[in-house]
Amino acid sequence: MPERMPDHAEVARDEETVAYFDEHTPEYGTSRLDPAARFIRKHGGEGASLIDVGCGVGNTLEYLVDAAKLKDVAGLDVSARCLEQTRERVEAETFLGSVLDRELAESIGPRFDFAVVAAVLHHLIGGSRRESREHAEEAVANSKRMLKPGGHLIVHEPVYSPYAAMTALFHLKKTVTRVTDRRIGLFGYWNNIGAPVVSYYTEPVLEQMLTAGDPAVVVERHVERWEPPPLVRPFVGKASVTFIARKNSSA
Asked: Which residues of 108-125 are buried (b: 16+ CB within 10 A; e: fewer)?
């Protein structure tokens, strides 16, 4: 299917993050979405529709199509290169644009039974931690706008606590990336103080984002606890969280 281009207002983009993922094109493990696939199989029914918000190179969408037996699927991403790879993997409608673009979200929906936002929110970076959180909240709100009434928003995120520690990490990464665009690993590849800049949230903050604004209620949650590196273990909590929220049927 062809890529649909927004023909309205300037698309909100974080060019540094787009460039980073264009260069690295990571494929995150699909097993993190096993709870989502089970829920979709159980509640989707024949003909269920789904949009993968921030679909990247399409491996997540490909997994959900196979695991949940979906046919009507779409992907949204800011990277044209990633969308090209998505279409090579899956027969899907694709939208080039930002989840921060409300006009684009409203032009797409409300038409989907499921919207999946997997490991996207912590990459929506503004000039400050507060602005980054506002971006994440807007992304959740726009994802709801693409859902039918009664549809389900599925958000998967790595979460950390306490919130103050992740605020400190945000500012540290901001500082380091002014000097170098390299990834500077600590205690392994996925723990680093370099690029890309990220803004991690706590589990309660993430839940608050899902239920704010347009009425929605969390109907399932899946939490997998992880042990941080030994030196920071006494100070930082880490988990992988999947929230599934149902949009109000009259919204």
From this structure: bbbebbbbbbbbbbbbbb
